[in-house]
Structures are given as structure tokens and as C-alpha cells.
Amino acid sequence: MKIVIASSESFPLMKTGGLADAVGSLGNALADRGHEVSLFIPGYPAARAQPKAAAAERVLQLKIEMGDQFLSGDIRTFSPRENLRVYLVCREEYFDRSAAYGNGERDYEDNAERFIFFCKAAVETVRLLNLQPDIVHAHDWQAALLPLLLRETERRLGATLALKTVFTIHNIAYQGLFPASVFPRMNLPEELNSIDGLEYYGQVNLLKAGILFADRVTTVSPSYAHEIQTPEFGCGLEGVVQSRSGDIVGLLNGVDTAIWNPATDPLLPARYSAGDLTGKVECRAALLRGCGFDPRFKGAIFGMVCRLVEQKGLDLVLGNESFFLREDCRLVVLGAGDKRYEEALRALQARAPGRVVLQARLDEEMSHLIEAGSDFFLMPSLFEPCGLNQMYSQVYGTVPIVSRVGGLADTVTDADAEPQAGTGLSCMPTSASLGDALVRALRLFRDRPRYAAVQARGMARNFSWARAAEGYERLYEESL
Ligand code: ADP
Ligand code: GLC
Question: What is the secondary structure of 137-186 as a DSSP string?
Fold first, then answer.
């Protein structure tokens, strides 16, 4: 099949979170399976600086209609591997910024403009370069307009395009909600500025366009596919999702073993496998040193790697401050994001020097070291569409502690509830329940044979991307 993928992030070109991992791995897995993949992402400086992008050539200059203006941009393209071609949508004014969406305190004011432009440029490129895809697969709100714009192109040309569209919701909490004044910038028929279109309580909701107008809608775990049809998790779009309930499916992300495999990971100081964990001991020592902790420390190390946002359950971790002050354990958090979490974690670090540390930055290498060197990986999210780190940590022999929501519920089995099958510990998304799980973790840690059994079961799990890609392949075929 010829497959166009459009996303604001794709590892290694641009990454702020799991969207990048999921899209990058999906593209690679589909290319490996012999499909012809065209990946559209904005031409961020980070993407253009990739070694493989050095050979990118400018293949198109575009004039994109935005309201009553025409804005220029260009398309640069390169092929990082067989069957995969990247199209960078470039417009300096919009994408020459080091951060993707904002400065950490607030989002950029022109995000609607930037991503409307991105979607329109992708549609124009598909048409002008005559890519003739079978499938156009758009991800999250930044690319959510694509299915609708393609349909509108059909209407304008009076022709039916022989393609089907798929839209994946990676996180329904991010909707691309903008003032009604952005509607004319899309040049869509006025009737779409209504409750059956993009209008959402007097605003424009881009995610809604993807959910309503794609031929198929997916999300990234089976549990989340149910959850987003309820008021508790639907973030106000539960009714819209319900209206597509027959067409929505939850396909679990996987682990890209080319990047996340402790036996081959080049970012680790030592490699290891389930059969020989000595390398993990070295990683532990390197992690303790890297955190400024005593490298001889023998107790439990809790690691956390996440965007510093409410979703990730940081309030629950902070709510258990007394645990981290009282118990002989270590906590390392690697994360960037909301300043208020950064400040709260720094304050905790100041109260527990040498025991708690915040590494406030994006750091690929440190994220691998935390996965490898910790004893427990903390992920008490309030909601989690899929979540990748709980899968990475199982593969790395680091026992995950998760809340029972979304993809976390689908991928981690509690070792106390199911002693023969457990691969981690799970709790409710509350401080008290997390506190209980932390105490259970220390109990597990002291019971070495039991800890080793839980660890070994996690390392034996297979979260392969091949399985995930097969799921998408089947969906594409069905929709065609
Ligand atoms: P989400 O997409 O909601 O952020 P996921 O668990 O799906 O959550 O994916 C998060 C990804 O981002 C993981 O690959 C994780 O290692 C990475 N990540 C998050 N914060 C950082 C950071 N500060 N430095 C490096 N990697 C990070
Ligand atoms: C989103 C979700 C996360 C998911 C990722 C990749 O960012 O928050 O749970 O794993 O997308 O699908």
C-alpha cells in the first residue's frame, strides 16, 4: 500500500513525548513490511538538523490559501531508509522554533495558523506530487484537518479520490481548541462551523474534525477506546466519539526494539539481558552517580520520566512526600514542562537532598539510564491513552508502578493481585492508593526471589511493533 502519515512529531526528527515514538515506529514498521510510506512533519530545526536530512532537496514551493491570503512555504524531502520518504513542511515564520508548541508557560499564539498551514500544505503536496496514496493516516489535533481537507478537495474537484483516511487519537486531552476567528483561515464551507462540524461551544475544535470526518478512527489502547466514550475521560468529546463508536478501535502501541532493548542499547553504559543482569547493576551505579547520589546505596531506586503535566500523576507523587522523606529510598524524576511541577519537585529535592533529584530537561540518554538503572518505574497517571515507559521498563527489568487506567491497565499486571502472572504493581489514581503501592513496592523489593520473578516475567513480555503494525495494516485493508 501507499501510505501517507501526517504528524507533528516523529522520532528521531522531533519529539516531545510518546506521539513521536509511536509515529516513528509505525512508519518504520510499515516500511519494513514493504509498504511505501510518506511521512509529513513540520520542518522544525531539529528535524532539518538530522544527519539524514542533510541531503534533503526542495521539491516544491507552495502558495497555501489561508482565508484571503496566500502564504508561501516549501517542501523538502529525503529518504532515511528503504520505503520511507520524509516530507518536511517548511515555513520559517511558523516552524523555525526550537520548541514545538510553546515556551513551557504558554502555547504559541499562532498554533492554529501553524497547523492549519501544515495540513493544507500536506494535502497540496499529495496532489501536486501525485503521490496517489491508498491511505492517509493523520495523528492528533495537529494533523486532524487532513481527512476533512481531502474530502473538501474531492468536492471541489467533483471527483472521488481513491483513498481512505484514518485518524488516530493519541490523547483526547489535547484538542486544538481555538477562537472562532480561526475558522475562515481554513476556507471551509460555512456549514462546517456548526455543531455537526468543527464548532465546539463557540470555538473551533480541530480534533473534532479528525474524529468526525476520517473513514476510521483509532486510539492507542483498547481500554482508552472505551474510556473516551465516557464523561470521566472524554474531555467533553465523549458524545462525538460515541457518534463514531462503530468505527473506533483501540490498537496498542509497541516497543521499538531497535531503540529500546537493554541487550543492544548504545545509550547505556553496560548492556544486559534476562539471562545476565550484571550490566543492569552497572547501569544502577551509573544512575546513582549521574544523580549525585551515593553510588554504594543499596535500597530501592524509583525512577520517573515524563512530561511535567497534570496527566502524569505528579500531584500523587508529591502527595506522598512523607514516604520519600521517611523511607530509605531514592527518587529521580526526569522531565520538562509545567513550571509549577518543576518548582514543587525542586522543593521536594531541597527537603530531601541526596535522596530526591529532579533532572529538569529533555535528555534521551538519561531516559534510557533511568529505565535501566532504577528498581521501580513510577507512572501513576490520572489517565493514559497508552503509555510507553511502562512497557519499556518491563523490557528493561524495572518493575513499573502504574495506575489502572487506559493503556497502563492493558499492559501491567499487579503482582500482589496475581502472584503467578504479575509484572508490576498497580493502583488507583489517588495519592492514598499510590502510597499503598509504594509500601507494597518496598515489601516486594526486600523479597528478592519474588522481585526477581516479577522482573523476569516483565522482561519476557513481547510488546512488538510488528504486532501493532499488523493491526493497522488490517484496518487499512478493511477500510479499502
Ligand atoms: P506521553 O506521550 O503522554 O508523553 P508516553 O509514555 O507515551 O507519554 O511517552 C513518553 C515518551 O517521552 C517516552 O519515550 C519517554 O521516555 C519520553 N520522555 C518524556 N520526558 C522526557 C524527558 N524529559 N527526556 C527524555 N525523554 C522523555
Ligand atoms: C500520547 C499519550 C500516551 C501515548 C502516546 C503515543 O502522548 O499521552 O499515552 O503512549 O501518545 O501513542
Answer: EEEHHHHTTHHHHHHHHHHHHT---S-EEEEEES-TT---EEEGGGGGGG
